[in-house]
Structures are given as C-alpha cells and as structure tokens.
Amino acid sequence: MELSPIGLVRSHIHSRSDMPVQGVKAEVEIFPDYAEALSGIEGSSHLILICWLHEADRTVLRAVARKVSRDLPEKGVFSLRSPERPNPISVSVVRLRSVREGRFLELENVDVIDGTPVIDIKPYQMGWDCVFSATGHDRTAKIEKMGPEEYREGLIREAVNYHGDLCPGVAVAVRIAEAATRILRRDLRIPQISVALGSDPYIADGLIGITGARLGDRRLRCSSGDCYIFTCPGMEIVFRLRTVPESASAVFACSEAILFDYEIR
Fold first, then answer.
1. What architecture does CATH give domain 7-53+88-129?
2. Model pTM?
3. How crowded is residue 220: how many other Cβ atoms within 10 Å of its Cβ?
4. Is-contact 111 17, C-beta < 8 A?
5. What architecture (CATH level 2) is domain 140-264?
6. What residues does each domain of the chain span?
7. Shortest CA distance to 245 belongs to which of 258, 262, 228?
8. Which residues sit opposite 241 in a β-bridge?
9. In whole angstroms, what is the distance from residue 225 CA to residue 203 CA?
10. Pairing mode, strands 220-222 and 227-232
11. Number of helices followed by number of strands (H, E) in the chain
12. Using CA atoms in the order 91, 203, 208, 122, what is the torsion angle rounded to 10 degrees?
C-alpha cells in the first residue's frame, strides 16, 4: 500500500490541543503536479477532505473523547473519531468557499492542524453521502460534559447543515434546543423525544436538523401557530414564540424570555 500526499493544510492552528471541535477556516494547498485534478471542483459547495494525521499514535486501540471530557468512558477507537488509531486517516466534510490561483482551496470546518498531508479530495454529494435517518449512540452523558458554548456550536452546525445558513430563525431554533436540552436533560436525537413544529419554516428546519425527527419515524408532527413542542415519556415542553430578532447575532445576544415563553406539563 503506497500513499502520496497531493497537498498540505495551511492553518493558524498548529497544535491538536488548540483545535475546536467544529474546526476552523483554513487553506489547502494542492501541489502543482495535481492542480489539474481540481478542474470542476467549484461546482461543489462541500467537499470530503481526506488527510493523514501525521502526529497520531498508531498503537492506540481504546481512547476517550478528550475534546469533551476525560471523565467519559473509554471506547474502542473504531467507535470514536479520535485521531489516535492504527491507520490515522481523517475524513471530514468541509465547506468550499473559493479556489485561488487554481490550486489553493479556501475551506471552512477544517479540523486538522497546519502541515497535515492531504491524501485525497472528493465532492460531497447530498443524495449519496447524507443519511438523514442514520442513528448513533445516546449522547446525553457527552452533552452533560460539554460547556455551553461548545454545545451551542454543535447545535448550530447541525441546524445549518440541514437548512443551509445561519439565519435568525435557525438561531432561534438553536436557543429553543438549548432550553429543551437543559430541561429534559437528554440528547434531543434519541427516539423517545418527539417534536411538534410551529409555522416558522426557518425554525422548523433548524429543529429538524438538530433533532433528526422525521414524519416516517413518528417523531415529527405539526403544531399550531407559534408553538414548538418537545415530548418525551412523562414530560412535555411547550415553547411559545414571542419574537424573532433581525439577525442571528441578536438572537444569541438576548435572553430566552425575549425570544419565547415555555410551559412544562
């Protein structure tokens, strides 16, 4: 088996310990010999970036999700996204912002450090690569260990990945989801939680992206007017929308009481 790097990541992050969970803006420099392979890449908004984690420990078989908390249980690396693994290949979906000088890719959500060798780049294709009905383990314990800013960043990414951009309505969905998580003390994606959506399509998109709820799994239904309802065994929370500010930054700056009221039943 023989691999030859096609380029390098250029980033302001030089240490793995400084890398945010959601990644950062960075540039990928494609070597001149491979520049021709980028022809047509501008037609994709997102790419699959495949890298070789050159600083990883290849002897590790069990690890802890340390980016969240060292108190979480140890698991096999094949059930984690840990950089330490027998063959340290990084596969991540990144947003393509622009192509400069024919071989420099301006990207977002890059979660590898400066100087990381790039092995391959593929176009991300929604119909093939997105499995919206996919399920995973219950993240409740992991969420409890997260700081509020880190959890918010995760919710924003889930909501934006579904809707397309961070508009004020999507930001309100994030604030509703934060409150619902705090009250229910559970991962909002578990099958025991269902959600009823009100009339705002942007908030609805955001909550669908965050919860993964679908009509087909009976976790998604419609509410009336400006009510958004989370239901789980033994509890129901009714959120009543009060206002949607004119910008996402304003949504995150104001108190929950300005955005919505809620009732626990």
1. Beta Barrel (2.40)
2. 0.85
3. 18
4. no
5. 2-Layer Sandwich (3.30)
6. 7-53+88-129, 140-264
7. 258
8. 260
9. 12
10. unpaired
11. 7, 13
12. -20
